[in-house]
Amino acid sequence: MESIMSKIKPKRIEIIRVKGPSNLCGKVQAATSWHEADMILRANATTAPKNGGYDKHDFRVIFEDGATYSGRYDLMHWEVARPDLAGHVRAFIRYLAGYAPAWLADKPAAMNRYLKDRDANLAEVEEAERWLERYDLGE
């Protein structure tokens, strides 16, 4: 397995708040590293809901080789949860690669559905494995 030093790093991470105070929504905030993206989210988290709920943020990661990954991040107030965009992306790619989340261990029926789904989608599993090997997802 390649070390994180040899993995392809993000070149630009774009974050757009889509829910929250209207004067803060719709603006592209750009970062050049996972850490910088988390600092943007941390600043945004000051106005996210404190007592349940979250503010939606769309994001797009552009890697140095031109590959992109897009998704949505549900941002909670900083007192509730620490922003971790790389962890969010990594967890989803691992899920697609067939690494079951820990919470499935106590839910045998859900675990069986997950395993059947991964067995039925081997091309997606292989592509996710390539992403885990190739791209810096903040490990």
Instruction: Please state the overall shape, judged from the principal axes of the Cα atoms.
Output: globular
Class by helix and strand content? Answer: alpha+beta
Number of helices: 4
Reading side by side through the largest sheet, how are the strands ordered? 2-1-3-4
Unreliable spans: none
Q: Mean of residue pLDDT?
A: 94
Q: Taking Cα atoms only, what radius of gyration do you get, to the nearest Å?
A: 16 Å
> Distance between termini?
13 Å
What this model shows, in words?
With 139 residues, the protein is α+β, with helices and mostly antiparallel strands. It has one domain. It has helices at 34-44, 85-96, 108-120, 122-134; strands at residues 10-17, 28-31, 55-63, 68-75. Strands 2-1-3-4 form a 4-stranded antiparallel beta sheet, covered by helices on one side. A hairpin with a 4-residue loop joins β3 and β4. It is globular. The model has no long low-confidence stretch (mean pLDDT 94).
Short description:
This protein has 139 residues and is α+β, with helices and mostly antiparallel strands.
What keyword list fits this structure?
single chain, alpha+beta, four-stranded antiparallel β-sheet, 139 residues, 21% strand, globular
SSE topology:
Blueprint: E1 10-17, E2 28-31, H1 34-44, E3 55-63, E4 68-75, H2 85-96, H3 108-120, H4 122-134
Antiparallel strand pairs: 1-2, 1-3, 3-4
